[in-house]
């Protein structure tokens, strides 16, 4: 057995390069936390200012509303022409991209972000999804 390998025989693994420390790369949260000092989607955004945090929450809320509108809109579900099929495909891709963007925002583990994403989807369903479900139930009766 070769005892000269790093990490073997009681030797500690090599430490990370020091330039990561100098670039300001801190630890990310791996548990839910409540703070306006969060990073959502982009490095340094929204920063440490309360107004920017509130703006970030509003943007995330609006995106989740928009995803629900795209999911429940009859505008894109009617008329099965080839052109409409391309538009529907583009809209589906946009909906999936925005949904994954919201998932990444929630992965910031900030409780405020989690609450506004759930509230946005819930309110979006109240505005757009309920109507579609009641129309479908009326057609089946």
Automatic annotation (TrEMBL):
<keyword id="KW-0406">Ion transport</keyword>
<keyword id="KW-1133">Transmembrane helix</keyword>
<dbReference type="Pfam" id="PF04145">
    <property type="entry name" value="Ctr"/>
</dbReference>
<keyword id="KW-0812">Transmembrane</keyword>
<feature type="transmembrane region" description="Helical">
    <location>
        <begin position="50"/>
        <end position="70"/>
    </location>
</feature>
<keyword id="KW-0186">Copper</keyword>
<dbReference type="GO" id="GO:0005375">
    <property type="term" value="F:copper ion transmembrane transporter activity"/>
</dbReference>
<keyword id="KW-0187">Copper transport</keyword>
<dbReference type="InterPro" id="IPR007274">
    <property type="entry name" value="Cop_transporter"/>
</dbReference>
<keyword id="KW-0813">Transport</keyword>
<comment type="similarity">
    <text>Belongs to the copper transporter (Ctr) (TC 1.A.56) family. SLC31A subfamily.</text>
</comment>
<keyword id="KW-0472">Membrane</keyword>
<dbReference type="GO" id="GO:0005886">
    <property type="term" value="C:plasma membrane"/>
</dbReference>
<feature type="transmembrane region" description="Helical">
    <location>
        <begin position="97"/>
        <end position="128"/>
    </location>
</feature>
<protein>
    <recommendedName>
        <fullName>Copper transport protein</fullName>
    </recommendedName>
</protein>
